[in-house]
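DM between two lab members

TW: hey, do you still have the DoxX family protein entry open?
JB: yeah, one sec
JB: this one, 124 aa:
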Amino acid sequence: MRALMALLYAAAGIAHLVVTDPFLLIVPDWVPAPRLVVQVTGLCEIAGAAALLVPRWRRLAGTMLALYAVAVFPANIKHAVEGIAVPGLPTGWWYHGPRLALQPVLVWWALFCACLTDWPFRRL
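TW: and the structure you got?
JB:
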């Protein structure tokens, strides 16, 4: 699970750096310097992905990736509520509903991969 999460965040981080413009469409209006923010979040995703694979950095990386998933939630809400068409992504609530519902799962997954929670897999 940890390697898969690292792979997904690394890919997302690279996408934020290589194809920044589509991400700009969903950045909330109150975010300053949106292009810079998208690029910095890409770097954070890549750093978090790499750190998640290093035992010494795993707990910090999991914590930061969990916080990151919370921080980007407003962009996901804007994308869904405003029905913004982003090239390459589906539209409609059949896509946005599950995406929004799975955001807490990403938070849990990061914490689980960092060994910060073992729920619901505790040993009895």
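TW: got it. The helical segments are 2-18, 20-24, 34-52, 58-71, 73-81, 93-101, 103-113. Residues 2-113 form one domain.
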